[in-house]
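Lab channel / #folding
Pinned by the channel admin:
"Please post every new chain as: sequence first, then the structure tokens as a reply. Keep commentary short and put observations after the output so the thread stays searchable."

First post following the new format, from NK:
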Amino acid sequence: MNKYYKQFLLDAERVSFDLKHRKTIKFNMSKYDAAVKNGFLRYIDKEKAKESTGYKKRRALKQLDKSLLQFEEKAIANGINVHWAIDRKEGLSIISNILREKDAKMVVKMKSMTTEEIELNDFIIEKGIDSVETDLGEFIVQVAGEKPYHIVTPAMHKSKKDVNELFARLFDMDENSTAEEMTEFVRKLLRKKFTSAEVGITGANFIIADIGGVAITENEGNGILSTSFPKTHIVIAGIEKIIPSLEDLGSFWPVLSAHGTGQSITVYNTIFTGSKRDNEQYGPEEMHVILLDNGRTDILNQEVQSDVLACIRCGACLNACPVYHNIGGYTYNNTYGGPIGSVISPFFNSFEKSAHLSYACTICGKCTEVCPQKIDIHVLLLHNRKEDIERFGKMRIFTLAMSFYKLFTLNVKLFDFGFIGIKNFFVKYFAKNIFGKKRSLAPFKTSFREQYINNKNLKKS
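Reply from TO:
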């Protein structure tokens, strides 16, 4: 057990028994569940919609090299500067050069998990440049000195009272301010940032091959504002965000919104195909798209786990996962938490640092059930476990114990031999660490086989 796994277990235990945290998450998750249930009512056949988008995404991934080159060709024709970044270091270097060239003093940034992946905010601030998150949830966690807690809902772990206390401390607001008053305060503060920033940075929900465009979807309009006033627009997109054509958005956007927030369609949906034209009043004078690999090619080369690249980052698997509900987003200690993060993080951050996340799963299959792209997430986690064992081996004692377990469980009579005494002995002395300090397993009294035979005889009599 390495230090990363040990820290994970310590954090998981601490958060699991934090009653305030559990109450907040339970409340926020219940709101999501109700919204999503209502959002699905628009579909006559939800599974068909999932199959359709899943097929289109995988079709683009199977010819990823061609799709990306097609995007590059079309984007350049649209006047977009296209850059390729093999990893975090290269991506940050490209951004640094652009910021230096534009003599940027302030950057406004739309919510983007890809920028979190390369730790862009910290990098920009270290350069002496002000970097401001403009999504309300992202703004809250940024001023609190935290990272996003959830892929879609960055401040899910905070109650209204938590935000009240934060804003009272940082901005001298009344602790009894309403949610509307706090939102209005942030809106006014950000307006000044939008109009004075030299550079706006966004992610991409989709990059569209056939038109060389970038599509973003949002509820607050901060993405549009981040690209309307600054003279330079930078897009950072993972290479897996590719979809074949503009027509595909008609099915992708509703599926994403239904699973992500329960909406029929997200409030603002925008397609960028370059900087502003001569006849346009607003918009950037220059647009850059950075196509980021950062481990995605490694995933693509996996025979089984490559299917995870079909993910559209809706966050549905996090909201369905019983483990995520209990241990929270920060315990994963990675950009992407929950089931989907547990699959991809070992490829992004190395198996040594993140392989243990693949074991933070009950294999209940709920993540697979809710996935809009029909990715068998829980199966991919099993393959990660297999790869972890193949890479780092396993303890001989564990291997020996599993051999004995297999021998006993495959032989009913052997399994039942000395049932009570042997099993209670193992549960008492060897299973206590598995169940934890706060739980215990009742002692065995009789075997299932014996109970079954007795019940069968009773029915006959």
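NK: The beta strands are 81-85, 106-109, 130-133, 199-202, 206-208, 213-218, 232-238, 242-243, 268-272, 286-292.
TO: also worth noting, The chain has a mean pLDDT of 91.
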